[in-house]
What we know:
Layout: H1 11-20, H2 25-38, H3 76-79, E1 89-93, E2 96-101, H4 104-108, E3 112-114, H5 116-122, H6 124-130, H7 141-149, E4 154-158, E5 168-174, E6 184-189, E7 194-203, E8 212-222, E9 227-235, E10 240-250, E11 255-262, E12 268-276, E13 282-291, E14 296-305, E15 311-320, E16 325-334, E17 342-351, E18 357-366, E19 372-380, H8 384-391, H9 397-413, H10 419-434
Parallel strand pairs: 1-5, 4-6, 5-7, 6-8, 7-9, 8-10, 9-11, 10-12, 11-13, 12-14, 13-15, 14-16, 15-17, 16-18, 17-19
Antiparallel strand pairs: 1-2, 3-4
Amino acid sequence: MSTQLTTPTNRQAAEALARSKGEPNWLVELRGEAAELAGTLGWPKPEKVRIERWNLTAVGSYEQPSTVGAISELPEVVRELVAEGSENLLVQRNSGIVWNQFSSEYASKGVIFTDLETACKEHGELVQKYLFQAVAKNEDKLTALHAAIWNGGVFVYVPKNVEVELPLQAIFYNDNAEATFAPHILIVADNNSRVTYVDCVVSEPGASSAPFVHPSVVEVFVKPGAHVRFSSIHHMGETGVDMSIRRSVIENDGQMEWIIGDLNDGNTLSDTKSMLRGTGSTSDAKVISVGKNAQQNSLTTQAVHFGKSSDSNMVTRAVMKDSASAIINGITKIEKGATKANGVQTEKVLMLSPKARGDANPILLIDEDDVTAGHAASVGQVNPEQVYYLMSRGISKQDAERLIIYGFLAPVVSEIPVEAVRGQLQRLLERKLEG
């Protein structure tokens, strides 16, 4: 069953909503253009997954959220994610911000950490320079729709030579399927700066059985010599469709790290791409996914090399049970002129039941001779020899299989930089693997 909700996807309605929220004229116009485009473009066409069969229209309508007076007023699913003693925390419910706290020390250094809608009003010139520059609003129907309806979101700006030592944390949660849930994350790390950003996207358990769609876009700009670490855990209910597009643009000697946990219970389209534009630019992407029931997962990780001596590494690990499926695409593209570039990728799928499906597609597109590139891919069951070895040490078969699965996912789990989030990720893995 498909549900069409009332989000304004024509130009007039999108512009009227933007004006009612007091958005600047340039953003009103951008939303209007995007709404018009959404009516003419087609959905993305990922490999071997027919997303047009998913319910893609239940994007809800704008709802003004009310803020909370204390973290204790937030739902448990949110509270358990908050880092202890966190000074840098932003929480968004459905269509907007309900909690925002930020260290005065970092603010005094010129660091900006706020919701994107506020940033468009207070830092319009800076935001306008970057918004929809890494992900164009006219790429396809998904990016156009998102550009027309995005709300809340996050804006991070780190000035030149500033290091933000403590992670900046954002939590996005949905408790009403009829409210638009479409955050846009925009991060700009200026020359020689350093920042770690962590977010979690969750839907409150049992809050709604109605279908909803989470069309989300991330844009990261890594200026020369800057280092950005981006971690994101997604865990939404089975009635949700998660469509998340992530892009980074990395300049000379810039470093980008992606750590992505796609642990939704509903269908997932996840596309994470690094554009290595600068000489000596690097990208490291780690993605895990666990699927159950009849869930479909399309997971794409990409690195496009333009810069000389640029380096990319991509690791994707997926565990599928029941009749869940994972189509994993790793794409390394080395453009003409990107001499001495190096691109490495690994995709592995572990299937825990006969009906589970995994498909690993490593793709190398090389237009330059003086480069190195490599790939590895595997799809299979839990290794019976490993199980036998652990059982010979007195461990039960069930515990042996669990240990092997956790070991399989550990390279990504161990990288999560916030302890509360890492702990929650462990709990989610247990729930999904044993539930």
